[in-house]
């Protein structure tokens, strides 16, 4: 049976030493969050995930969710008790303002819990994760009355939340949706239509589910400009907050999926269900994007999480599995063979995963800090800069972290050899579960198009120019330190590849849009590799400082420095490959007629 240990110490190092979390103590909710408090919060988060969620991962996958004849859905054994523990610990409401039943703590502190929970049990973690996303949209765009009525019980975990976008005929192109909303005499709407792929759409974990549903008001404009967002409760809520009658929404079926079997992915039928408009009519996508953007960061974390748990189990196996002898001679002559960790190719796979995990964790925490700055800083310039970074990096994090998270789960499975293909070891579940993250919240090709088509040119390229400026200043600040040269020089070269790719797009994409489309996926990964490298520069600098300040941490910091060098030497050179692909343009890719494929 696979195991999991939350990487609390690594998270604390990133928050305290690399990102210097205490610099933000002036922001609302940060002042009382001292390093000791952070350590206590993360320790409790890790304990819950290790002891309660992880033991249910394999059984939840094997047993899955069950739909009864009446449309009710039963989650796997143990999930209800686990959800009660999760909600009872205040984890759902951790970043929610206190006036709505939350703890008002920084969003940054809920990010490690998202990783730990997704690594321990990804299917389970989606239930509270989607609730947090729905809460974010509600608190941003809901009326005061809507927030009063729904938010406290969602923050408490008594009610959960979902997002309902996709329909059988429309996925990415939401302008094709047909779910309709007909005004009612009482000021509400009757919602009719069908939504598919709705994660956590029906379950037995909470007494009510608050669905956020995209629909078109009768007579609204065609396309995305005519889409509105509605609250559609599973059980209607009375004015005093008590539950009323069952609404006209039901689960028609549960999707038979490749992975995440413990999460109920439902076909949802809306049969004249009562809905309540959030925000302005025909502005539903603007409201839903609050949830979608938070969900994209959450999905990026899922990619990291599956990579981490797969790595931990592959590493443990590599230390114990005896096969062959080291190329330089026996390392354990008293045994018939050496552990497979002695073999360079096994180390290659493990080092590639490790080098990704540590830097990717830093990027998710940095993004969470930017989110807190956007929502809590009184400094308009700081908010704008953080919002620009988030806008630029969100599609990169979602696309790159989920692509590499899946690749890493496969690598970890490979470390097990034939045993990795056998269900009892748990590795094939990590591969299956990781696969969906590449599709969620816009497939990764869509993330790449969003990056190149919208995020790069927005505001005259302000975000990418700021990225180059910040990167240049970081590298310059460490450029005269001899010990930092193995990290600074390769990153500078990779940054040059990114600058060349950006310039090529500026010169070739406007006149020929297919050039942008053909380059977008490689550009996303090129930017992602550079972002990971810049994080490793920060980690390396912090490691040197911690070694000097705390000699007892020398061995642990030396491991990080070796991992950083591995990334620079063995993984970062891929930026040259990405650049070479980008500058070939779209001609060859687009030249074949459809009947020639």
Features:
about 600 residues; 11 strands; five-stranded mixed β-barrel; alpha+beta
What features would you describe in this structure?
The chain has helices at 8-18, 35-53, 57-63, 79-88, 107-141, 144-156, 284-320, 344-376, 380-415, 427-435, 444-455, 462-478, 485-508, 513-549, 554-571, 574-582, 587-591, and strands at residues 66-67, 73-74, 159-164, 180-183, 189-199, 208-217, 227-233, 235-237, 243-246, 249-254, 265-278. With 597 residues, the chain is α+β, with helices and mostly antiparallel strands. A 5-stranded mixed barrel has the order 4-5-11-7-6. Strand 8 and strand 9 form a beta hairpin. The chain is globular. The two termini are 45 Å apart. The model has no long low-confidence stretch (mean pLDDT 96).
Order of helices and strands: HHHEEHHHEEEEEEEEEHHHHHHHHHHH
Q: Report the sheet with the most strands, covering strand number, pairing sense and barrel closure.
A: 5 strands, mixed, barrel
Q: Helix fraction?
A: 55-70%
Shape descriptor: globular
Beta-strand proportion: 5-15%
Span from first to last CA?
A: 45 Å
How many separate helices? 17
Provide mean pLDDT, rounded.
96
Which regions have little confidence, pLDDT < 50, spanning 5+ residues? Answer: none
Arrangement of strands in the largest sheet = 4-5-11-7-6
According to DSSP, the number of beta strands is: 11
In brief, what are we looking at here?
The chain has 597 residues and is of the alpha+beta class. Helices cover 56% and strands 12% of the residues.
What is the secondary structure topology, with strand pairs?
Blueprint: H1 8-18, H2 35-53, H3 57-63, E1 66-67, E2 73-74, H4 79-88, H5 107-141, H6 144-156, E3 159-164, E4 180-183, E5 189-199, E6 208-217, E7 227-233, E8 235-237, E9 243-246, E10 249-254, E11 265-278, H7 284-320, H8 344-376, H9 380-415, H10 427-435, H11 444-455, H12 462-478, H13 485-508, H14 513-549, H15 554-571, H16 574-582, H17 587-591
Parallel strand pairs: 3-6, 4-6
Antiparallel strand pairs: 1-2, 4-5, 5-11, 6-7, 7-11, 8-9, 10-11
Helix pairs in contact: 1-2, 1-8, 2-5, 5-6, 5-7, 5-8, 7-8, 7-9, 7-10, 8-9, 8-14, 8-15, 9-10, 9-11, 9-12, 9-14, 11-14, 12-13, 12-14, 13-14, 13-15, 13-16, 14-15, 14-16
């Amino acid at each position: 049976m696979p195991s999991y240990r939350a990487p609390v110490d690594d998270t604390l190092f990133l928050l305290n030493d690399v990102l210097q979390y205490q610099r933000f103590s002036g922001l609302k909710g940060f002042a009382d969050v001292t390093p000791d408090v952070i350590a206590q919060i993360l320790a409790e988060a890790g304990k819950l995930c290790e002891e309660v969620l992880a033991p249910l991962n394999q059984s939840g996958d094997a047993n899955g969710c069950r739909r009864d004849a009446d449309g009710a859905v039963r989650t796997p054994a143990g999930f209800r008790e686990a959800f009660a523990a999760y909600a009872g610990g205040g984890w759902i409401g951790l970043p929610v303002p206190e006036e709505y039943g939350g703890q008002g703590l920084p969003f940054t502190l809920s990010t490690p819990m998202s990783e730990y929970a997704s690594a321990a049990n990804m299917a389970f973690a989606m239930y509270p994760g989607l609730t947090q996303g729905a809460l974010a949209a509600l608190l941003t765009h809901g009326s005061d009355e809507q927030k009063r009525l729904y938010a406290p019980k969602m923050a408490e975990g008594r009610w959960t939340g979902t997002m309902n976008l996709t329909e059988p005929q429309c996925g990415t192109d939401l302008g094709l949706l047909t779910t309709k909303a007909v005004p009612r005499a009482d000021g509400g709407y009757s919602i009719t239509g069908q939504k598919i792929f709705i994660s956590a759409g029906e379950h037995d974990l909470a007494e009510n589910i608050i669905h956020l549903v995209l629909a078109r008001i009768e007579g609204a404009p065609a396309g995305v400009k005519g889409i509105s967002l509605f609250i559609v409760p599973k059980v209607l809520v009375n004015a005093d907050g008590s539950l009323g009658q069952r609404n006209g929404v039901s689960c028609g079926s549960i999707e038979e999926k490749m992975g995440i079997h413990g999460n109920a992915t439902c076909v949802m039928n809306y049969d004249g269900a009562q809905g309540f408009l959030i925000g302005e009519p025909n502005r539903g996508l603007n409201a839903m994007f609050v949830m979608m953007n938070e969900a994209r960061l959450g999905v990026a974390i899922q990619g990291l999480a599956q990579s981490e748990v797969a790595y931990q189990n592959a590493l443990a196996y590599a230390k114990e599995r005896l096969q062959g002898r080291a190329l330089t001679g026996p390392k354990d002559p008293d045994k018939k063979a050496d552990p497979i960790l002695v073999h360079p190719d096994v180390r290659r796979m493990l080092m590639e995963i490790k080098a990704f995990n540590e830097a990717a964790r830093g990027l998710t925490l940095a993004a969470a800090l930017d989110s807190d700055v956007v929502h809590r800083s009184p400094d308009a310039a700081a908010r704008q800069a953080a919002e620009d970074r988030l806008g630029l990096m969100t599609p990169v994090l979602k696309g790159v972290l989920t692509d590499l998270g899946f690749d890493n789960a496969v690598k970890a499975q490979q470390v097990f050899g034939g045993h990795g293909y056998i269900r009892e070891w748990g590795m094939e579940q990590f591969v299956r579960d990781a696969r969906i993250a590449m599709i969620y919240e816009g497939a990764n090709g869509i993330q790449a198009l969003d990056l190149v088509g919208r995020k790069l040119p927005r505001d005259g390229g302000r975000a990418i120019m700021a990225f180059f400026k910040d990167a240049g200043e970081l590298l310059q600040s460490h450029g005269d330190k001899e010990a930092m040269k193995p990290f600074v020089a390769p990153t500078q070269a990779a940054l040059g590849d990114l600058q060349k790719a950006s310039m090529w797009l500026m010169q070739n994409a406007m006149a020929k849009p297919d050039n942008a489309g053909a380059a977008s996926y490689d550009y996303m990964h090129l930017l992602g590799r550079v972002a990971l490298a810049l994080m490793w520069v920060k980690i390396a600098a912090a490691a040197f400082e911690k070694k000097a300040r705390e000699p007892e941490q020398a061995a642990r910091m030396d491991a990080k420095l070796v991992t950083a060098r591995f990334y620079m030497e063995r993984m970062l050179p891929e930026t040259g490959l990405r650049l070479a692909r980008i500058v070939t343009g779209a001609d060859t890719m687009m030249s074949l007629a459809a009947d020639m494929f």
